[in-house]
Design a protein that fits this description.
By secondary structure, the protein is an alpha+beta fold. Helix content is 18%, strand content 28%.
Length: 174
């Protein structure tokens, strides 16, 4: 009986965490390690975890492909959780199947994990990131749907991990 009560309390706690605007419980995306994250204030830095709502066009595509779940962004989707890799003033280039950011190359997949061709949403194939725009990527999933396909994005807030549930390693071959 005690085990059932503990499980019920844990589930209730997780539901509350997902309903509050301060805590985020990640078990849905491989873009960040599974765990509990807290919303924090600060100036975005390279390597910070961030949350973003996608533009309506990108969000609609994500919903139609089942990349995104329903959520509380204005577009009706969940926020995406990624790592800030590019900051305002950084340079990027898209060429020969790679997204290059300040000289570091990230492989671009032509097809998703279901074998469907991927659409690209960036307007410019090269440039410098404007004020308030960031490159959001994942070191935790090779096939992450991220700024390699969307282009530069705004962020809503930063996240700090409070408790990580699994030991996730960065993948080395981009």
């Amino acid at each position: 009986m005690k085990i059932k009560l503990w499980l019920l309390l844990i589930l209730l706690g997780l539901i509350v965490l997902n309903l509050t605007p301060v805590f985020y419980f990640n078990v849905f995306t491989h873009s960040l390690p599974y765990g509990i994250y807290m919303r924090i204030k600060g100036i975005p830095q390279r390597g910070d975890y961030a949350s973003s709502c996608l533009t309506p066009e990108i969000a609609q595509y994500g919903i139609s492909r089942h990349y995104l779940a329903q959520g509380n962004c204005d577009t009706g989707t969940v926020r995406v959780l990624k790592i800030i890799k590019g900051l305002p003033g950084d340079h990027f280039v898209v060429k020969n199947g790679f997204f290059e950011l300040n000289g570091i190359s990230y492989h671009i997949m032509n097809k998703d994990s279901s074998g469907r061709a991927l659409e690209f949403f960036y307007k410019e194939k090269q440039g410098m990131l404007d004020k308030g725009k960031y490159i959001l990527l994942s070191d935790f999933a090779k096939n992450s749907w991220d700024s390699r396909y969307w282009g530069p994005m705004s962020i809503q807030f930063l996240l700090k991990p409070l408790w990580i549930f699994e030991n996730v390693h960065n993948f080395s071959d981009r």
